[in-house]
Amino acid sequence: MVTTTCPYCGVGCGLDLHIKDDYIYRVTSDFNNVVNQGNLCVKGRFGYDYIYSDRRITSPMIRKEPQEAGKRVQAFDVDQWVEVSWDEALDYVAKRLVKIHQRDGANALAVYCCAKASNEDNYLLQKLFRSVFLTNNVDHCTRLCHAGSVVALQMAIGSAAMSNTAAEVIKSDCFIVTGSNTPENHPIIALQMKAAVEKHGAKLIVIDPRKLELCDYAALWLPLKPGTNVPVFTAMANVIINEGLINTKFVADRTEGFSEFKKSVQEFTPEYAESISGVEQDLIVKAARMYAEAQRGAIYWGMGISQLAHGTSSALSLVHLALLTGHVGREGTGLNPLRGQNNVQGASDMGCMPYHYPGYMEVDKKENATKWEDAWNMEAGSLSLDKGLTTTEILSSVGEEGVRALYIMGENPMMTEPNLNKTKKHMEELEFLVAQDLFINESGAYADVFLPATSWAEKDGTFTNTDRRVQRVRKAIEPMGQVRGDWEIICDLAQRSEELLERSRSTFWRYNGPEEILQEMGEVVPEYRGISYKRIDKIGLQTPVPDEKHPGTPYLFEKSFPSGKAKFFPLTYVPVFEAPDDEYPFILTTGRLLEHWHGGTMTRNSKLDDLYPEARVDVHPIDAVRTGLDDGDAVEVGSRRGKVVLRASVTEKTSPGVLFIPMHFSEAAVNLLTVDALDPQAKIPEFKACAVYINRVGKELLPDRSVRLDRGRW
Amino acid sequence: MMQKDSLEKPKNNQKLLDNIAPFATEGRSGLLPALHMAQEMYGWISESVAATIGHALKVPLADVFGVIDFYTMLYSRPVGRTIVRVCADPSCSIAGAKEVLDNACDYLGVKPDETTEDGEWTIESTTCLGLCDQAPAALVGDIAITSLNADRTSEWLALDAKQPVSIIDGDIRVLTRDCGGSTPTDLETYQARGGYLALSKACAEVNPVDVIEEVKVSGLVGRGGAAFPTGVKWESASVAEGQPKYVVCNADESEPGTFKDRVLMETNPHQILEGMLLAGYAIGAQNGYFYVRGEYSRSIEIITEAIDEARCAGFIGNNICGAGFDFDIEVRVGAGAYICGEETALFESIEGKRGFPRIKPPFPTTHGLFGKPTVVNNVETLCNIPMIIRDGVDVFRSYGTDKSPGPKLFCLSGDVVRPGVYEVPFGVTFRHIIEDLAGGIKGGSLQAILVGGAAGAFATSDELDVPLTFEDLRDANLPLGSGVLMVFNELRNIPIILSELAYFFAHESCGKCYPCQLGTQRQYEILHRVVRGKVKRGDKERLLDVGWTMTDASLCGLGQTAATAVISAMDKWPDLIED
Amino acid sequence: MNKNVTLTIDGKRTTVPEGATLLDAAVQCGADVPTICYHEHCTSYGLCRLCVVEVEGQRVLAAACVAKAQADMTVSTASERVIRARRTILEMLDSAVDLSEAPEIEDQLNDYKADRERFSEGWERECEVVDDNPMFIRDYSQCILCWRCVQVCADDAQYAFAINFSGRGHETSISTFYDQQLTLSTCVFCGQCVGVCPTGALKPKREWLLETGHEQDEIIKLTQAKRRKKKRRQERPYQTG
């Protein structure tokens, strides 16, 4: 039996893998595990089988037909590739990258790090591109999920992580869940939320356009229209201020900018919020009172807050509520953005972002660059002080003067970027593309070189979960075929590249194992300094862990904020980028399902796909009548950017006027429809709202008529 | 196909939704009433009907099915428009119930538990219907018919048979003072004979604490079988923390051989209601539940009417007797589960769950219905309360012995000349009741008396002169139970009776704890083998091990007494089972 | 402040915090009290009664997993009555249920010198293996009705409420709504039930296939998503709207 950490969502459940002859036949979890108390969801318990899939790529490959910019095509079939040795593959990658680097400069290269890979892998990949290729064009999918929250939290309090531990929800007496379908996306945290309500008497306020499972447990449900968070939350602030429910001492001692903010909220009356959001003003008032009058109020949110072209304001409006009431810095309170990926917190901590080195040190500050130049054995002044490009910007700047080569570790932008038809064009324009993954996914299919990497069960390392807990990942089975650990691939490639670049000093790539990588990072980053594999052998530690004696930090900001005082920001209401009109009368919102994971690289190659084999669009019964649809009908949903054909589910889970399509299904890729409008500060796209039409079409147009979801829980 | 059915939203269910609307607001505790409603509307409960109810009451569907499948009177498959239930327990069995059932099956051309092709009839063998004094008995639909003649199937199926009328007699007529006659005592008559005086007196002049004190001093103990001091129970609930508090009348009379509560309900309902009201007043409760077994449709009707009468007269509702005391009583109907007579299983049943008994402690007086302090009393127990308060403790204690004060009802059935309910003061002997009151043994000399019901023990002629008091019976190693005296003459086959009793327990075990779940079945199997003459070496020891394991280790009273009769028979007749 | 209670277990005085069960107290004393249905992380319902102990002055035996320790109790964990009850329960269970994949119960049968043929001719829990979903199988002939699966499916852990009971008495079994297949129930396939099942009644499908003689390669194919996607993929380049 091998104890490790789940590779799916940000909860970071402990797993015990039961193995016979290198074959995992059962997964259990320790009931004493502090994170999940022995509870798992379907993905953690049964969703590991993709590692055994016969579609998995286990040998390095190069495309048979050489690809060139503008004519790049996808190759899903292994017959379109040639198996090569690691030497050949890595020499080829190094040669091409170095050539472009030398010809077009450092910023012609870009890399997508991976929120699914370990801290060690991510640290090394950003180190490779920063220290060897000298570019800050380093980003990962945090840009697409919580960038709005991250920027808002950094602006307001100076730290972007979840302030408290998820399991603390049972200590809250009132908590808000908004923009999060927690039972499907963070199933184990949802169990703790349900227990908080059912067993500990907490009151739950759900603020979401969809009537989700948590509504059954909620004291209040505020069904707002997508993208109207700012007026609703600010109206709650208005009520809290005008009814004298603010925590005067907290506001006075620990915040600044209140009086200006107070003035700015006056126009956000509950009446006004109702007129925009559709939420009855009475509910807004009740919710404000319930949260403000709680002893320990907490806020949990998901991407319904951040994935908007005003995601930063949207998150800020939520932050204000905690600052007004002082519901932060104590157990059972807090500002808790639920991070999506198993290691999105870690990948961010590791500096896989264009503006930050590991430990959130800004790249445009000389003193930070100096620290890393020292750590990486580089000549002073060699690191770039220019901010790099974000995920979406990297693709949109592909072209002769822009990005020429892209290195993708484990991500799938061809499923996860907005407005995929545009993404497709950008992908086609790349001169060189490397995919390091387990499967040829929609993005990897465009690559010139495929580097097969180990799955989470075949390697050692650490993940940092949503509540900042650094936990061990352990090698449980021997790597399949010729696959290699990501860190080993990166080190090998780095050395070959340094050689070709004729660097006089190496930035050091000879690690004996992943732990040395974490140690190297910890020497510079104080939050991780006290973490060693030995200390987290049984129970992970929550960062910051500044030294080897430090017990970790369950909740932050007890005494002060990293920015000193927290700041209020007067906000204005910005409507969603694309409002419904006669031609596109519905708002489309997107999200995830319990059974699937993001672009589907893992789960659609798993038995999980049998549980939920097809994409569905949720349509409210009122809209179904209006548009003449029945449950199970084939429909075409289209926007100004694209269209998909899929089956309709007529369900009260969604609100009238709002359609919902999950993001996992390439045969009905919802991101063909979404709009690539970006938040000005966070650069996060507006996945949560775009205007679409829906029409019934013949069933023969479905991607595969033989496939039909047959489940009762909907 | 099943899959389709469950995915389809039930259609045309508006009528059902309208009918269950009053229960839907109650949530889960409205489940049993809603299921009864559906059963009545459709004759059975289909998947889509069950789903509609589950969604309306917000009860998980798996739980809805779990509840339906627990109760024998709820059907998850189609059954006949009329369900015939023929009692198979000893009193009826010795009166020829088997022949009645067999002939009816032949007549209808079906086997037990089957439905006739035209969908008219389903016939079942059932456990005690509380009509033991008029055996053999059956329910046709919800109509009880008695003294059935096996040769007249077509007549009794057409309800051309005796309707139940019990003999009510005895040395004294205190609890049964107003009982008898063919119609129940109505409010006017009840009041004319001093009814509700105790309630008005208590409300006007007596503190709740003093009511409890009176009941304590009276020495009244529970008449349902456990004989717990009633006043102590009330006091404990009254001082327990938690609101609201509840009073529950346990009228789930299902112990084979017992029918006194049915007689009390059918003849003098207000006496019970007054007892409940006084209990509510004493402990500070505002709500009462009257839980009647589903087979007692006449009792349900009469109690429901009596509650309406009392409500109209201001004895139930708000500001009772002008004394600021609020109390309401709701009738809850069981659905065919003996175990729901166990007080905590009864709570679970009211709460809309399967009738699984709870672990005790905590006891109902602190953690009862809905987890709140609750007094649960048997029908007969409550009937004693009005007279204690109205006439005083001394009058109550003038009956019976010092240690077993008060009047007591006994249910005589089996081989006696005049089976019926007999009221006596504690302290008379078996002989007095059987010979002087019930007219003696019928069909031969006395072989045995099953004392206390299916969960009771056997007495023989040696014990005929034992006085019926708690203390004397204890010395004689006999339980008083619920006051059952089931009499068997010398011709009766004890192993058959034991095997029937064992079948009863195997059928009624809830299945929660292992000793009872497995033990009742194993006990039945062994006894069934004995009856067929296929005794195996070691069967006696097997029966004792199973029996004592159930007695010692079961979770609730059902399992703890499921072997009492068997062990007592083996003790009385050591050669009963020969290896 | 927590109060303590002192009691005597098998002649040894021991002090436990108020609210501790007799099982806690027995464990603390080193007394060996066997359990079947008890699970540290599930609500105890005192079902199997294997943990019964004799408390002086009490009419019947007490289930140690739920009975609270009280001051000055005198408890015997291995009296004659206790041993008889445990042995008989084990014998009856063994005769009714397939315990071949419950090694802990098999050990208990040996410890209590159970006669495994004693009730061998009686009723047995016999069911077909239910293979109605991609994740796990259900073999209720191995089900001992410990209730753990129902509890963790409900508010002990997952709040999924997909399973409850059907029947009653010895014919009780674990069931979905009208015994429909799990995929149609509210099951979220968290497998929590599989994780707490003390016998082989609930088992990951892969483990079951492995045990029923399938090779790894074969299982990978058997348990892989049924549809082959390669072809479909090629046919569906993104279409511009």
In short:
With 714 residues, chain A is an alpha/beta fold. Helix content of chain A is 29%, strand content 18%.
Beta content of chain B comes to 5-15%
CATH T-level topology of the largest domain in chain C: Ubiquitin-like (UB roll)
CATH architecture title of the largest domain in chain C:
Roll
**Quaternary structure annotation:** heterotrimer
Number of helices of chain B: 25
Please provide the count of β strands of chain B. 15
Helical percent range of chain C? 25-40%
Largest sheet features of chain B: 6 strands, mixed
CATH superfamily of the largest domain in chain B: NADH-ubiquinone oxidoreductase 51kDa subunit
Radius of gyration of chain C: 23 Å
Strand order of the largest sheet of chain B: 5-12-11-15-13-14
Tally of discrete structural domains of chain B: 5
Tell me what the structure shows.
Chain A has 714 residues and is α/β, with parallel strands linked by helices. In chain A, strand 14 (356-357) and strand 15 (361-362) form a beta hairpin. Chain B folds into 5 domains: 5-70; 82-157, 3-Layer(aba) Sandwich (Glutaredoxin); 168-397, NADH-ubiquinone oxidoreductase 51kDa subunit (Rossmann fold, 3-Layer(aba) Sandwich); 407-489, Ubiquitin-like (UB roll) (Roll); 494-572, de novo design (two linked rop proteins) (Up-down Bundle). Chain B has a 6-stranded mixed β-sheet with strand order 5-12-11-15-13-14, sandwiched between helices. A 5-stranded mixed β-sheet of chain B has the order 8-9-7-6-10, sandwiched between helices. In chain B, a hairpin with a 2-residue loop joins strand 3 and strand 4. In chain B, helix 4 (47-57) crosses helix 5, helix 13 crosses helix 14 (269-283) and helix 22 (514-531) packs antiparallel against helix 23 (539-553). The radius of gyration of chain B is 23 Å and the shape is globular. Chains B and C meet through helix 1, helix 4, helix 5, helix 21 and helix 22 of B and helix 2 and strand 7 of C.
